[in-house]
Amino acid sequence: MRVGLDARLLAYRRAGIGNYVLGLLEGLRQIGQEDRLVVLTSRKHDPADPALAGLRRRVLLTPPHHRWEQVGLAVELARLRLDVYHQPDFIPPLRRRFPAVATVHDLAFLRQPDLLTPESRRYYGQIGAAVRSAERTIAVSQCTRRDLIDLVGAPPERVEVVYEAAAAGFRPQSAERVAAARRDRGLPGEYFLFVGTREPRKNLPRLLTAYARLAEADAAPDLAVVGSPGWLAGELESRAASLAIERRVHWLVGVPGSELPALYAGAVALVLPSLYEGFGLPVLEAMACGAPVVCSDAGSLPEIAGGAAVLFDPTDVGAIADAMRRVWREPSLRDDLRGRGRERSAAFSWRRAADETLDVYRRALR
Fold first, then answer.
1. What is the pTM of this model?
2. Domains of the chain: which residue ranges?
3. What are the residue ranges of helices labelled H in the chain?
């Protein structure tokens, strides 16, 4: 079985879908199945990228999300001798000579269509045709599987759930590493942490308002926001200033993955107030590092947290502030969440995901 794994997004961003590709490659290496792959990269990709060392590669000229991707990518793939093509970015070519597997991470663009740019709406608007055409679709949670069936009519018998996992580097950190991360990023001894792209579905305006309420009533820890600005991010820094919390909010951009575990481990809690998540990887990353988790009860987050987090209604600013205050003020609760979180995160692994993904490839060939 010769599988073409589309990794073109790695040349643009090492986050989200890029991390999914890296995790899957890690799992396939662990089970000794990486020789089945042909990794399809962008012409902009660094040929010396150590993440792809030792893997067979083919360079594709068609950029991801390009207006003519359906035509250009189909022509390029036709020249390769593939048994299965895996598109981790939702939309495989609708016309092809071989079976396709598509991974769908979430359907936020259907739940909240106003959160997309016109370009993204055009690309992801193909999702219905894509999942009805693909021989198999991987959903990263039961929540996303239900959405695929309910919202775009995906054939239930062809949609399979394969959970993601935190990468191996996410684990408890030494006190020295935590102190160094705080010092390097100008963080105080106590801080709440948000990790994710600054985009509307992450619900950051309400988080800032909730934090302002908490900071006004108590000498609360600072808030560290890790992640780059995404589409329709808005003027979050101006909002923080209008709430008089600009000196308490730390906007951390360009944080490398190697530094994230120490930031998680040093936090009072990860706070993830998303209006919708198809998986919610920061929840598992934080748990694996021993950080308590406070997150919304929307989308897949209760499914992934599995009872190891404090949940809140993401539309209720008071509920967000109360959950943050509770975890901060109750050390015994933090200790309990740390223990349950480590146990919960251990139930997910990229080795298991790779095994299950290989089974999906085999079923796509039947």
1. 0.93
2. 3-165+349-365, 175-345
3. 17-30, 69-78, 108-111, 118-124, 127-133, 142-152, 175-185, 204-217, 236-242, 260-266, 281-288, 301-305, 317-329, 331-345, 350-365
